Amino acid sequence: MLSATPAKEIVSLERVGLQYNDDKTVFQNVSYNVFMGDFYFLTGHSGAGKTSLLKILYKSVRPTYGRVSVFGYDVDSLDRSDLPVFRQHIGLIFQDCRLIENLSIVDNVALSMHIAGSLYKRSRAYAKELLDWVGLGDKLNSFPDVLSDGQKQRVSIARAVVKRPALLLADEPTGNLDDDNAFRLMALFEELHRMGTTVILATHNNQLTKNFEYPQLMLKNGTLFVNIQKEGGKGRAAV
Predict the structure, then answer these.
(1) SS3 state at 212
(2) Percent of the chain having pLDDT more than 70?
(3) Residue 2's pLDDT band (boundaries 50, 70, 90)?
(4) Contact in structure between 224 and 27 (CB atoms under 8 Å)
(5) Cα–chain-centroid distance for residue 87?
(6) Whole-angstrom Cα distance, residue 94 to residue 200?
(7) Cα Rg, the chain, nearest whole Å
């Protein structure tokens, strides 16, 4: 069973590579450290490997080679029984929202807090607050099947941040949203960041990267390039 291990680096990648079964290289020899309190945009064209890299950090995809450490744990050595403990401090936003269809959106958001031991009323109250923040305060008791793709995405974002995770992995969280809602959600991510959450946000939205001055991890031609010429991050290249 996992025990708490203080980690200087939230994420450490050492010469990580990923290839498909047809030997197509997605990325190779990626090395980088992300420290507690950093905020990074993860950028690159469609197919560059942004989603795959986030899934590697969550241990839902295994790299072809290299070492991945998250919260000080060697991800490759984790057993299936370790995953619930490992993942409980990670907020995850992927493009397939995976909402529970037979629960209202407020209960979808409150569920993880309730499972973690929060009182039902407290969980729902905080879930309502977050749903109001993302502009869905008038749909608390609606079910996922009546929501648009953009609305479902906002529910999944509220669900991912409801427990104030130590690490937030967000894959194109504003992809189905207009600019107004995208900027509104960025304010939520920034507030979470100010409270101590480390954020890695994959995006191809140039308006976000231009208007929010956080450094970028850029995947291009199978290689990771790091732009730290902006305020907001403390990442350091791994040796």
Answers:
(1) coil
(2) 92
(3) low
(4) yes
(5) 11
(6) 12
(7) 18
